[in-house]
DNA sequence: CTTCCTTTGAAGCTC
DNA sequence: GAGCTTCAAAGGAAG
């Protein structure tokens, strides 16, 4: 990232965060004292919820925690983001973020996860991050109604949204002690949510639990029957992976992707990402700082949710060779992989046009 | 079905 | 500590 690392722009990225962390000195203590306690409250409430099917009680408790969190987060944001002319989180959906986080965007393997990210009610079309669709950073990329989502999608969601949707996050349990303490040997299938097809222990249908379509063995399990003896090989259960928290640029990409797609009528992610990379560089310092701050919050929250987690957990050493090969090949073919020239060549655009017209 | 492409940033690893 | 590697997201393309 030459723009950020060179000269005056240098402290935009990491050092911006350094400043931010320095500023947090006292704040961090308050924040941690709050989050630990409230996370504990939240977790215990969820544990209680799973033990007793008294849903209204569980909902009320979560809402209480949420209210407390919103108050404290608002305070935190006022202290932490003084340099922003607009209160970007306050009054936005962001205050609900940690509770949307209970739908767990970090857990992958969709249907295998009790906290599936492929839930149309909680997460829109492409499993849009629970944070980003709700935060109007500024007026440009976001409108008041889920800006980067197609309008019809929002309507569809609204149409399918059950009346209790606002409380749905309360039904996304965090495993006691945090997911970070879950070892692969711990039976993910023994989770109560996995036992029924989309039915929570409360008996309420769970939108996050997508039953395996066409899996008759699972259907048998669902009905309390023994599965038919299946001569086919048993499918190895995919272990849920806790994803890395998104960095600032990833958050930006999630926000802007839909817009770029709409403007440029492109679908190829590689091309879109090139455009987004350039736009990222074109962002003002303040605009980028918003995303850095957001990413920092993501990491903090991720650390709290998964204390023992390490990025190493998701490392696959195999991929290194492939990636290296790919990169070497790349260097051979082009010294400027993201150049407008290459973009134009790739999409057969006019050589006189810098990038793709509106796609800057 | 899996991997690649393409971007930036964070974190892990190696020397 | 510098430099390299891997992975986060996305979805079409290619193998």
From TrEMBL:
The keyword Transit peptide does not apply. Residues 319-328 have a biased composition (Basic residues). GO terms for biological process: canonical Wnt signaling pathway. GO terms for cellular component: beta-catenin-TCF complex; chromatin. It comes from Eleutherodactylus coqui. GO terms for molecular function: DNA-binding transcription factor activity, RNA polymerase II-specific; RNA polymerase II cis-regulatory region sequence-specific DNA binding. Residues 19-37 have a biased composition (Basic and acidic residues). Belongs to the TCF/LEF family. Coiled coil: none annotated. Residues 242-310 bind DNA. Residues 242-310 form the HMG box domain. SUPFAM superfamilies: HMG-box. It is found in: Nucleus. Pfam families: CTNNB1_binding (PF08347), HMG_box (PF00505). Residues 1-37, 312-344 are annotated as: Disordered. This is HMG box domain-containing protein. InterPro entries: Catenin-bd_sf (IPR027397), CTNNB1-bd_N (IPR013558), HMG_box_dom (IPR009071), HMG_box_dom_sf (IPR036910), TCF/LEF (IPR024940). It comes from the Eukaryota. Keywords: Activator, DNA-binding, Nucleus, Repressor, Transcription, Transcription regulation, Wnt signaling pathway.
